[in-house]
Specification:
The protein is an alpha+beta fold. The protein has 2 domains: about 5-130, no CATH class; about 135-210, no CATH class. Helices cover about 40% and strands about 10% of the residues. It has helices spanning about 15-20, 50-55, 100-105, 105-110, 120-130, 140-155, 170-180, 190-210, and strands at about 10-15, 45, 60-65, 75, 85, 90, 130-135. The strands form 3 sheets. Strands 2-4-3 form a 3-stranded antiparallel β-sheet. Strands 1-7 form a two-stranded parallel sheet. It has a two-stranded antiparallel ribbon with strand order 5-6. Helix 6 packs across helix 7. The two termini are about 30 Å apart. It binds iron/sulfur cluster (SF4) (2 copies). One iron/sulfur cluster binds near residues 31 and 127.
């Protein structure tokens, strides 16, 4: 992230102000021919009501999702880290693919500055380095910077939050930052403990809506 990759390799990520408001509504990622996330050692969670996805995946490659109620399933990956449903570089069950695949949006890393796990997911990291958001106003540019500051604050100040409230998984921490960054103060003179309190209140609020 922040790497100078050259203009020709940049990919428009969309208008930041629109994207950040809709991130929890619809992913709709302009993936093009990329399928990096299907080749990145991901466990795919499938909910019990995803009948079409469950019917389309051979039962022998599905297993019970740990720490989830009965009926929640998980699909793993092969020795190369590829999803077993990726055939000839394409999703073989595209129309019936799980909701987890539909929701995945690697732009969350570009927007928040949260680092992708480079060892496990170098292909996703490459794609993330290419995304560039557009801004329709000076405020939007400031908001992207504020989101990045909020994400960095969460990663660097875990000890100021209740135990286990800040995830370690990069996707989860990026999504948490997107959910709460509007509570991150514009006033940089605020003490870290006060910032953590404000963010914790927002975390409780969004938990209440979950
Ligand atoms: S890594 Fe990103 S761009 Fe590539 S397929 Fe996945 S979501 Fe789309
Ligand atoms: S089910 Fe399809 S979209 Fe989902 S990870 Fe596998 S190949 Fe990719």
């Amino acid at each position: 992230m922040g790497e100078d990759i050259g203009e020709e390799l940049r990919i428009p990520a969309g208008i930041f102000s629109i994207w950040v408001e809709s991130e929890f509504v619809s992913a709709d990622v302009p993936c093009g021919t990329c399928n990096a996330c299907c080749r990145s050692s991901m466990f795919i969670h499938i909910e019990p009501e995803e009948i079409e996805a469950i019917k389309s995946i051979p039962p022998e490659i599905l297993f019970h999702a740990p720490w989830q109620p009965e009926g929640h399933l998980m699909m793993g990956f092969n020795e190369q880290g590829h999803c077993p449903m990726l055939v000839d570089n394409k999703c073989s069950i595209y129309d019936a693919r799980p909701q987890t695949c539909r929701n995945y949006d690697c732009r969350v890393f570009a927007a928040t500055g949260v680092a992708v796990d480079l060892k496990r997911q170098p292909e996703i990291a490459k794609r993330v380095a290419q995304w560039v958001f557009e801004h329709d106003s000076a405020e939007s540019l400031e908001e992207e910077a504020r989101l990045k500051s909020a994400a960095a604050f969460l990663c660097q100040n875990r000890d100021l939050f209740p135990p286990d409230s800040i995830p370690y998984n990069p996707s989860e921490i990026a999504l948490l930052a997107i959910g709460i960054y509007k509570a991150f103060p514009r006033d940089s003179k605020m003490a870290d403990t006060a910032i953590a309190r404000a963010l914790s209140v927002e975390m409780d609020r969004i938990d209440g809506f979950a």
